[in-house]
């Protein structure tokens, strides 16, 4: 066994990565010795104890998988800005392929990674600047794809939040209105759903048949719910 002085800091970074966070989250901008000072907490009691009382460590390494040469992909946090820009179209394509295969959760994760790359770049730009807007216009279709996955996973409130954020910036985005309308309908926000579907038809009249189908489905669900409620209330009052 070897004495590993900096292991607590490495372990904290690895745990952040596993949780989908920035590996440097919470670390102060100072030297390693200052990081290890006994008044500094890493946020994990076991790592804090190891930091205060260093000891030899033995590591058991488990081989999880073997990847072919050239197939390894860096996590977004580890990429340079240029690598992020180059990776986004590839990640987007992978997400689309997974979606076509019916692997919706996996596709959503890909879209999320692509969005994260662009959001990271966007944070470095002045809001409203040409570069910021260009990045935002790349984020929007990815976010709509992500929302489509979330609709199928029945995570409707996340769809409502993301589509509303898009429409706050792009008031004529038909896809955002349509997906938000479906999410509203799913959680029984009937008036809001009808309003969003009406907006879809105004912006793109060719979608009227699709919207009519969604409205018929909503009305059928409402009739079914009304019948169930009548039976339920009848049973309650008859007791």
UniProtKB/TrEMBL annotation:
Molecular function via GO: peptidyl-prolyl cis-trans isomerase activity
A Gene Ontology cellular-component term: cytoplasm
InterPro entries named in the record: AIP/AIPL1/TTC9, PPIase_AIP, PPIase_dom_sf, TPR-like_helical_dom_sf, TPR_rpt
A Pfam family hit: PPIase_AIP
Domain named AIP/AIPL N-terminal FKBP-type PPIase: residues: 1-65
Spans of repeat TPR: 174-207
SUPFAM superfamilies: TPR-like (SSF48452)
Compartment list: Cytoplasm
Principal location listed in the UniProt entry: cytoplasm
Gene3D superfamilies cross-referenced by the UniProt entry: 3.10.50.40, Tetratricopeptide repeat domain
PROSITE patterns: TPR
Domain of life: Eukaryota
Keywords: Cytoplasm, Phosphoprotein, Repeat, TPR repeat
Database matches in PANTHER family: AH RECEPTOR-INTERACTING PROTEIN, ARYL HYDROCARBON RECEPTOR INTERACTING PROTEIN RELATED
Subunit relationships: Interacts with RET in the pituitary gland; this interaction prevents the formation of the AIP-survivin complex.
Task performed by this protein: May play a positive role in AHR-mediated (aromatic hydrocarbon receptor) signaling, possibly by influencing its receptivity for ligand and/or its nuclear targeting.
Entry protein name: AH receptor-interacting protein
Organism: Heliornis fulica (sungrebe)
Lineage: Eukaryota, Metazoa, Chordata, Craniata, Vertebrata
Chain's gene name: Aip
């Amino acid at each position: 066994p070897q004495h590993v002085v900096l292991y607590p800091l490495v372990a904290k970074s690895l745990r952040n990565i596993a949780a989908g966070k920035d590996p440097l989250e919470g670390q102060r901008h100072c030297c390693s010795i200052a990081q290890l000072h006994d008044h500094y907490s890493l946020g994990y009691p076991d790592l804090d104890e190891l930091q205060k009382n260093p000891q030899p460590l033995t590591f058991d390494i488990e081989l999880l998988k073997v990847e072919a040469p050239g197939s390894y992909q860096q996590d977004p946090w580890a990429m340079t800005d240029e690598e992020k820009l180059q990776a986004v179209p590839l990640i987007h394509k992978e997400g689309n392929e997974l979606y076509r295969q019916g692997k919706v959760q996996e596709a959503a994760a890909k879209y999320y990674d692509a969005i994260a790359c662009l959001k990271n770049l966007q944070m470095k730009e002045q809001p409203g600047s040409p570069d910021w807007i260009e990045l935002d216009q790349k984020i929007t279709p990815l976010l709509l794809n992500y929302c489509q996955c979330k609709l199928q996973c029945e995570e409707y409130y996340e769809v409502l939040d993301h589509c509303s954020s898009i429409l706050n910036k792009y008031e004529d985005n038909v896809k955002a209105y349509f997906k938000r309308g479906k999410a509203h309908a799913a959680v029984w926000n009937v008036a809001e759903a009808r309003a969003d579907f009406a907006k879809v038809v105004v912006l793109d009249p060719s979608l009227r048949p699709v919207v009519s189908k969604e409205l018929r489905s909503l009305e059928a669900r409402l009739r079914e719910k009304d019948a169930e409620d009548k039976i339920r209330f009848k049973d309650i009052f008859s007791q």
